């Protein structure tokens, strides 16, 4: 049940068509796993927290440094050197004391990814490398939960809602990882994409609106253009292809 303070706090979203108190209670009972408390994880987690997602698990093994502060708005100068997930928990709980935030300080590896994701209803990918994204992609396929992909570069960002077998998986869309490197970025870029990631998660959890299924959204900040590209399943995908081949064949009569 919602507290009186929560009803007042969330009033402006609860008066939206189709939202109401029941939807807000469902959001309060939801769990989101956020992989990464950096540039994308900052706006994504902040907007999920203030919307009233009741349980946020945020995972990051790194600590903020001065070069992060142009975009990683979960953190500040006084928190340089402490763990990002711990810093994120402090910020999010200050923003909304009605939610539960779990700080996970582990590095995501194949041996622990399923345990870290746990019972999350949805995974939000806010990582900066494809090796970890691929691990998350495999985990959500095993668990049968969706995955919100986001990435950034300079003044450009990408976004997709991944939910195999309904959609292509991340490996279908990006068969080969991009090489890890220090990339240029202006802080407003993850602000845009991270906010859109939060929106995709909220749409899924509330059932309001349509998710970006089977599409790759590209935002070009220099020209302020949004473009959508169709993403296709790879029937020979080494990850979700196995899932597709294991599904029962539906037989219909003429």
Structure characterization notes:
Helices cover 36% and strands 18% of the residues. By secondary structure, the protein is of the alpha/beta class. The protein has helices at 4-9, 11-14, 20-28, 41-51, 84-95, 113-117, 130-143, 170-173, 188-206, 240-246, and strands at residues 31-35, 55-59, 100-104, 122-125, 147-153, 156-162, 215-220, 225-230. The longest helix has 19 residues, at 188-206. Strands 3-2-1-4-5-6-7-8 form an 8-stranded mixed beta sheet, sandwiched between helices.
Which percent range fits the helix content?
25-40%
Number of strands: 8
Strand order within the widest sheet?
Answer: 3-2-1-4-5-6-7-8
Query: What is the CATH homology-level superfamily?
Result: NAD(P)-binding Rossmann-like Domain
Radius of gyration: 18 Å
Distance between the termini: 49 Å
CATH class: Alpha Beta
Major β-sheet annotation: 8 strands, mixed
Detail the poorly predicted runs: 245-254
What structural class do you assign from the helix and strand content?
A: alpha/beta
Give the percentage of residues in beta strands.
Answer: 15-25%
Q: Which CATH-level-2 architecture?
A: 3-Layer(aba) Sandwich
* CATH fold group: Rossmann fold
Mean pLDDT: 94
Count of structural domains: 1
Shape: globular
């Amino acid at each position: 049940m919602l507290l009186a303070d929560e009803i007042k706090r969330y009033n402006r979203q609860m008066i939206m068509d189709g939202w109401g108190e029941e939807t807000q209670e469902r959001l309060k009972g939801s769990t989101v796993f956020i992989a990464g408390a950096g540039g994308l994880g900052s706006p994504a987690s902040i907007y999920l927290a203030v919307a009233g997602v009741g349980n946020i698990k945020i995972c990051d093994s790194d600590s903020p440094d001065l070069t992060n502060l142009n975009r990683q708005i979960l953190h500040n100068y006084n928190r340089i050197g402490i763990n990002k997930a711990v810093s994120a928990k402090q910020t999010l709980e200050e923003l909304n004391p009605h939610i539960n935030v779990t700080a996970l300080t582990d590095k995501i590896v194949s041996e622990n990814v399923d345990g870290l994701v746990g019972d999350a209803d949805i995974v939000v990918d806010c990582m900066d490398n494809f090796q970890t994204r691929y691990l998350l992609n495999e985990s959500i396929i095993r668990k049968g939960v969706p995955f919100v992909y986001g990435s950034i570069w300079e003044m450009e960002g990408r976004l997709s809602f991944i939910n195999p077998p309904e959609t292509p998986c991340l490996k279908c869309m990006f068969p080969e990882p991009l090489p890890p490197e220090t990339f240029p970025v202006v802080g407003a870029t993850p602000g845009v994409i991270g906010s859109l990631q939060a929106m995709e998660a909220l749409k899924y959890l509330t059932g309001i609106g349509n998710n970006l299924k089977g599409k790759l959204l590209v935002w070009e900040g220099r020209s302020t253009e949004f473009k959508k590209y169709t993403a296709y399943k790879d029937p020979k995908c080494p990850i979700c292809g196995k899932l597709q081949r294991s599904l029962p064949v539906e037989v219909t009569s003429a």
